Amino acid sequence: MRYFYVFFLIICLLSCKAKSEIKSAVTKEVSNMECPKEGRCSLEIIENKILQINTDNLGSVYPEVLNGDECVLKFEYKKLGNSNYQDSGYREEIFIEIDKSNPEIKTEDLKNKKLFFARWCYCKGQTGYYKINKGKLSITKVDENSFRIQLNFKIEEVPQVINRIDYIFSLQ
């Protein structure tokens, strides 16, 4: 009977397999964007994905990145924290869904666009995802595969460090 338990345990351990999935994302360090000196900014281009808008049990809205035909841009600002303190980290993210076949756009009507701001810190009651409704978004073509994104926005609910993005990116 003891051998049976050992055999069963070995079978259980050998049958586990990690999920293997290749992500179609390109992460670039953003150097020509205005980034505060005390942090780092990066851009991740996630192709063939969409932003699905979900609502949790408390009524808060959050985006979920799913497979699709569009492209998601994820800008991230990460403040360089003090390694002596566990809760000293601070991060902001901006998610933008763009039309992969025709990314050019110029609008001040951000309520109908899939744009989200996320704030992550030890700031009670002031973290999570927030829909970007106020501001201006412009994506213009620079050359064959390059585009310039200009986003100026304001979040009323929480303080923010990043409120302006001006960056040239490439779609493959």
Characterize this entry briefly.
Helix content is 8%, strand content 51%. The protein has 172 residues and is mostly beta strands.
How would you explain this protein's 3D organization?
By secondary structure, the chain is mainly β. It has one domain (22-170). The protein is 8% helix and 51% strand. The protein contains 1 helix and 10 strands. The protein has one helix spanning 2-14, and strands spanning 25-29, 39-55, 61-79, 90-98, 105-107, 115-121, 128-131, 134-141, 146-154, 164-170. The strands form 2 sheets. The chain has a 6-stranded antiparallel β-sheet with strand order 1-2-3-4-6-7, with no helix packed on it. The protein has a 4-stranded antiparallel β-sheet with strand order 5-8-9-10, with no helix packed on it. A hairpin with a 6-residue loop joins strand 6 (115-121) and strand 7 (128-131). The longest helix has 13 residues, at 2-14. The protein is globular and about 70 Å long. The termini are far apart. Mean pLDDT is 83; it is low at 18-24.
